[in-house]
Amino acid sequence: MNSRRDFLQKITASAFALPLLSSFKTEDHPYKPQPYEGPALRVAIMGLGSYGTRVAEAMQTCKYARVTGVISGTPSKIKDWQSRYTIPDKNCYNYENFDRIKSNPDIDAVYVITPNALHHDHVIRVAKAGKHVICEKPMAVNAREAQEMIDACKQANVKLLIGYRMHFEPKTLEVIRMRKNGEFGKILFFQGLSGFRIGDPTQWRLNRQLAGGGAMMDIGIYSINGSRYMVGEDPTWVTAQEIKTDPQKFKEGVDETIQFQLGFPSGAVASCLSTYSMSNLDRFFLDGEKGYAEMQPSTGYGPIKGRTHQGELTQPHITHQTIQMDEMAGIILQGKQPVVPVDGEEGLKDMKIIDAIYQAVQSGRKVDLKL
Ligand code: NAD
C-alpha cells in the first residue's frame, strides 16, 4: 500500500502518453496484489456518499485505476478522503469550483456518483472541463437528458462510460458467452426481478426532484439492462402496470412497484418486476429452446450465484467495482472494447426504455420502441 501511495504522489505525466505500453492487460488476474507501477487511469470521485465510498475502497485493489482527486460539498469528507487516499489539496474540489479541474494534469477522468437528477449537469460540466466521464446509473432521468450528455461528451472529445458493473462480472459474462455460442438454443423468455424494501422516507431516492422517479430508476433498471444483455437483443415494445400501496411514502412521480413486459425482434419476451416494497428480489432467469440460466443474486454486490442446464456457474467472485474500474481504464486509455458496451449510447437505450415504461403505465397501452 505504501508503495502505491508513494507512486500516487509521483505521477505527474499525463496518462494519455502511456497507453502504448504492452503491460496493459486486464486478462492477467490484476486482483492478486502484484506490484505494478505502470500507466493508470487517474480518477476524481464526485459525490462521496455510500456508493462513492464503495467504489474508492474497491479501487484500492485496482491495477490500472487510481483515486487521485475528489469533488464534494462537505469539507470534512474531503479531509477524511485526503488522508485515507493521500490526495493533495490541489486535487480537491467542490461543486462550485470543479470546472477548474480542466487545468489539472493529475486527473484523467471524473466518476459522477451523485443523485440521479444531478448527473446531467455534472457530466456536461466535466465534459466541458475536458475530462473523461464515468457516470452512475441511471445516467440521467430521461432520454432527452441522456442524449444531451452524449452530445456534450462528443463535442468535448471525451469518453462517456456508464457504471454498469455487471458488464464485467465473470458469471454474467459466462452466461452471455454461452448464449452467443448457441448453448441455450433460440432464446424464448427472460424474467428479471429487481427490488428491495426501501427505508427512510426522507432520502433523496424518494424525492422525485433528485431521483427522477422511483424504484425503476434505481433498481428496475437492472432488469431492463439485464434483459438486453441476457437476451442479446434490444426490445421493440413495452407494456407496464403500476401498483402503489403507500402513496404517502411513494408520492406522485415516485414509482413503488411496476411490472413490465418487453418484446424482442426474435419473438423472445421478458417479464420483469421493479419494486421498493419487497425483499429477496434479485433474480434473473433466461430460457431457451435447448437450455436455461438462472442467477440469484443476479446483480447485487455478490458473490453472484447461478446455474445453467449444464451445472453451477463456478467463475470466481471479484469485487465488481475493482474489475469494472480496471476494465474502464482499458476502455478509456487504450480503446479496449468491452464484451457488453458501457458507453453513453448503452445508457441512453435504458433511458428510452424507462421513458416508454412510464408512458405505458400512464396510457395503459403497448408502447413501441426504437433504440
Ligand atoms: P448517497 O446519498 O449515499 O450519496 C450521494 C452523494 O451525493 C452524497 O455524498 C451527497 O452529499 C452528494 N450530493 C451532492 N449534491 C447533492 C444534492 N443536491 N442532494 C443530495 N446529495 C448530494 O447515494 P448513493 O447510494 O451513493 O448513490 C449515488 C448514485 O450512485 C446514484 O445515481 C445511484 O443510482 C448510484 N448507485 C449505483 C450503484 C451501483 O451498484 N452501480 C449502487 C448504489 C448507487
Strand order of the largest sheet: 14-13-12-11-7-10-9-8-15
- Low-pLDDT sequence parts: 1-24
Beta-strand residue percentage: 15-25%
Order of helices and strands: HEHEHEEHEHEHEHHEEEEEEEHHE
Number of beta-strand segments = 15
Helix % is: 25-40%
Helical element count? 10
CATH superfamily caption of the largest domain: Dihydrodipicolinate Reductase, domain 2
Largest sheet: 9 strands, mixed
User: What is the SS-derived class?
Assistant: alpha/beta
What's the number of structural domains?
Answer: 2
Radius of gyration: 20 Å
CATH class category name of the largest domain: Alpha Beta
What this model shows, in words?
- Helices cover 33% and strands 20% of the residues.
- The protein is of the alpha/beta class.
- The chain folds into two domains: 2-164, NAD(P)-binding Rossmann-like Domain (Rossmann fold); 166-314 and 344-368, Dihydrodipicolinate Reductase, domain 2.
- Strands 14-13-12-11-7-10-9-8-15 form a nine-stranded mixed β-sheet. Strands 3-2-1-4-5-6 form a six-stranded parallel β-sheet, sandwiched between helices.
- It is globular.
- The structure holds nicotinamide-adenine-dinucleotide.
- Nicotinamide-adenine-dinucleotide binds at residues 47-52, 73, 113-116, 118, 136-137, 163, 165, 204, 210, 218.
